[in-house]
Amino acid sequence: MPQNIVVGHRQLMAEAEAEVESIDAADAVAVLGQPNVAIIDIRDPREIEREGRIPGSFHAPRGMLEFWVDPESPYHKPIFAEKKKFIIHCASGWRSLLATQVLQRMGLKPVVNLKGGFAAWKEAGGPVEKVEKK
Asked: Where is the Rhodanese domain (predicted)?
């Protein structure tokens, strides 16, 4: 018997869009390197190896994000305790939109979604650095 999915990805994303702030890629490119901004890449490591990354971005795999943000988690990463504006991105902005919603609910602020993700970043002429396979 097939599953009866009652809330699909489109509804989840529409709800998240109503709750979170997003930043356009051109505006994100303009703040790259500012000390009060942290760009968080939640893509899979294989995506980063294949496509490259935003210089200076911090990689936090989507599957560990909540645990890395929570200061009470044994997996907490100190970057998430810093007073910065967090710009979350994935490849196209879908995963990061939902992740931004969760991080906002957790109390991380300010936190914004990079609208259009890494694809929009590249289209806006943002710098990309190659990443060597591990």
From this structure: 33-130
